[in-house]
Amino acid sequence: MKQNFTIRQSALDGVEAFLAVARHRNFRRAAAELGVTPSAMSQAVRTLEARIGAALFTRTTRSVGLTEAGERFFSRAKPAFEELVAASEAARDLGQRPAGLLRLAVPRSVVPLILEPVIAAFCRAYPEIEVEIAASEEMVDLAAGGFDAGIRLGQLIAPDMIAVRLTQPFPFMVVGSPDYLRGRKRPQRIDDLRQHACLRLRRSNGSIAPWPFVDGNKSVEAIVSGPLIAHDYATLVGAAIQGVGLAQVPGPLARAAMADGRLQALLTPFAVTGPGVFLYYPGKRQVLPKLRAFIEHVRYRGADAPRGATNAKGPRKLNRASRS
Fold it and tell me: Is the pTM of this model over 0.90?
């Protein structure tokens, strides 16, 4: 049997009317302050008294006074109501201008790639916004964690999120240091990785990620092995620079090391292209000005963000997510 549910009448109904009458000791002046009729004001107070179960005012034809119950109610309701009004104004203020605490959940590898170049400029441009960055490889629940937004690779973002592009698509590059490659045969085919020490990434769900490639029109996931497993790409890049082994990482993270010769690109004809990095947030709520300001700032500053190294034939696509 279906039950009937009703919403309980608000404990705040009539409180504003009561406080106005208590201040003015007059129903007409209180009604004029709130922009209602005296009869509406009187009805609101009577309804409040009925709900409380006590008379709050003593009324005569010439004056209005507070009963003992009214005095007690006024002494506690007035500061509580003023605090509620102040809270509403504070919340409304955050809805009208960029201010407040902006909490972002980001992977560690994104910090130097996207945030470091723009965060100082953002803080200078919006001094009323405090930015908190929670750097972790874990896939967090934004709502449960109290985050305004997150930043991730596009293929890792749930389809019910609103995603905003922060970088262009970029290739996933296999890289190795000259020290590691010295005296070893460079891999020419994907199968050649069996003869190499490969540095691997453990996903947030506990599994070890295979290395994705494209061979002709066929997608290939190579199961590799090696001496090191890390939880973030930045660690893999650092280990590859030190000659621990080969790593497959987002192109922009290895760009500087490839440019100065610390790393060399390998197997480029088989490289796949990921969708890029996106900022994402739940789609079923209004975007507050603080988050909108950050989105626009990062978009503007990231218009010329590095796309990563590519090769003459061009990398292939990696399960590119549909994102705006």
Answer: no
